[in-house]
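User: quick one
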Amino acid sequence: MQKVSIGLAGFGTVGAGVYKHILRSRDLFAERLGVRFDLRKIAVRDMHRTRSFDPPKELFTAHWEDLIADPEIQVVVELMGGMDEPYRLVRQAIEAGKTVVTGNKALLARHGKEIFSLAHEKQVPIFYEAAVAGGIPIIKAMRESFVANRFERIDAILNGTSNYILTRMTECGMDFAQALKEAQEKGYAEADPSLDVNGWDAAHKAIILASLAYGFWIRSDQVRVAGIENINASDIRFADTLGYQIKLLASIRVDSHASVGARVVPTLIPKNHVLASVNGVFNAISLHGDMVGEALFYGQGAGQDPTSSAVLADLAEAALALQSPRRCYGFTSHDLYGNVQSPDDSVGEYYLRLAVEDRTGVLSQVAGVLAKSQIGISSVIQPEGHASGIVPLVIMVHHAPFGCMRHAVEEIQKLACVKSSPCLLNVESFT
Amino acid sequence: MQKVSIGLAGFGTVGAGVYKHILRSRDLFAERLGVRFDLRKIAVRDMHRTRSFDPPKELFTAHWEDLIADPEIQVVVELMGGMDEPYRLVRQAIEAGKTVVTGNKALLARHGKEIFSLAHEKQVPIFYEAAVAGGIPIIKAMRESFVANRFERIDAILNGTSNYILTRMTECGMDFAQALKEAQEKGYAEADPSLDVNGWDAAHKAIILASLAYGFWIRSDQVRVAGIENINASDIRFADTLGYQIKLLASIRVDSHASVGARVVPTLIPKNHVLASVNGVFNAISLHGDMVGEALFYGQGAGQDPTSSAVLADLAEAALALQSPRRCYGFTSHDLYGNVQSPDDSVGEYYLRLAVEDRTGVLSQVAGVLAKSQIGISSVIQPEGHASGIVPLVIMVHHAPFGCMRHAVEEIQKLACVKSSPCLLNVESFT
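Assistant: Done. Structure below.
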């Protein structure tokens, strides 16, 4: 029986889950893989914190450097969260020739290029299935199962918290604050939910998916990111009237000049599209390969058990890789399509909601600004007047480059008849 | 650059696709994997058949034995179809120490136990992603990505032809014969569609999925299989009235005594379940693991390009395995839960449509038979009378063992008031 010695950094929700399942799955791994995992050390920030269940005290250390220093440890599992310490831990683990398993999407999105090239140089494998969409095995699918495909597009719901909030707003007519409060009460949102609802958590995952599809790392300042904080109950209703649902959608596209663009933006998607039926904390990834056509994966994107399942699958890979090292999947060339489309050049359809004065001539002024920018309107909703004298005005816009649209919205905002910040969302018809 | 020499048996739709994509993907594989595939021989039954495009004539042989005899060939790709010749080819390839890639679901469902134990003995890897659900990488997901999970249930739509026919019957009110004809015209159904519409193609795939989930091979006589030939337009309408859609559903379950049951039966599923929105030739597999919870995979289950994509992914695996052999994923023990539930013991809910005489007392007679077997009725639909004096009677039945239900239906069929063969379908509420 092959023994694999593991050092675990981080004992939060996922770290504790990994510990629990390594114990619980002892027989399963012996039987399915002929492997026995030996968890030698757990590095934590606070040695004195009370924990819901307690591994033997002697396993713990307050210094992650101890995982590197222990020559017996073959695999370092990084589940600390944060950036600077994980960055140093992962680099040092690779330098020391230890296999790395990580679920840290922010780390990979920021330092992926450097980390993977160091790993390539040192011939150390890195596994990171837990970094994107927890229980959905999308990393392995893209790297291995679809290895013969060139990817045409990826559309994904990658943040369970945002999706839960939008689902509740859609199902119950809640506003954002109510739905967020409920998500926090149910443990689906952190006390500080900003990274989840501002789109950046999903953006980190989209950067990782793009790196798998196109073989290079998009910088985060090259991704257009918007969160769901400004969606209100009326947007949900207008979208519904128009035949759409609003989802925080990550979209990655390659255009005919092989330029890759990525955005994470609240997006109106047709109600009959399968992504519209992905509700609650679930995630889903739809991708188009030139051979497989459309393939879609759906599952839980977070949570202790689904994420631990991904980490344990990575540990199985790590065990097999230790037993007989082989060439890894993944692109040897990282510059094949190394060409990023500026968000401003990305052509899309849009939903624009304004708060305007309730008087004639307003629509004509707004439409005039759009016309000057050669932007075509496909439909307009102007609900009945309100005692306040301020009414919403919803405009659906045909294909336009985002930069052009952004500029037009800035101009519209300067009109005297426009009374508060416009809400600009993407519309995706998947054609 | 590693060179991998391949012998291909079969040059039908998928075989020709594999040939085409091996040529087309030369640079991609060199770049992504550092591998060059060298297709040395193609074995075909008919050397003189005209083909839509023609590999060099010298590649062809009429004798698959030539693939075995060629010492240069490292990987045999079996895409012949049929049973006896593929069986001999695969056995001989393993005996000769050649890696096997096959898409032959019938072969594995019938001889899997023997083939895999021979392969284990000879330490030869077998890859078969193309055997189940073409473009959906479910084999790798179950073996590798979910290696830490115990599977609680699997529900799947595994035959695109049946699903296309049922979709058209649902969307357009077509009857079975019309929808089948359309499927044949569009190339979605063979001239002889029996294996697709009688449920057996899906059953072979279900047997393979069950072997991955539970580590042993269910015999085909232990699977309850029914096709869609007897579904008529009125069944589609009654199901719709009751809130369901009819799908040819493969269901694999493990009960509290660790008995595994499998069935492939036309099944009423709730319209709001995600499997109900899997339409046309698409396939989908929903599985529940004890760690990941529900995970669902959706994509094209057949067709030249999606299936070739799966074969090429297997060739990539084969290349890596040749380069550095390692322990394979998969269960070492094949008897862990080697316990099959008899179809008669499987408890389900049912939809029963009868053609009965249009007179009072009929429902009471039918209900009487069910009551004698302790079978509870949950609802009844009795449409208005018809000039013929024969009317349909639809009965929805609560949980009952299939054997008990089957026996009751046999009794009901003997009643004088029952005029033609009953249509008995399963109902799955996914609770």
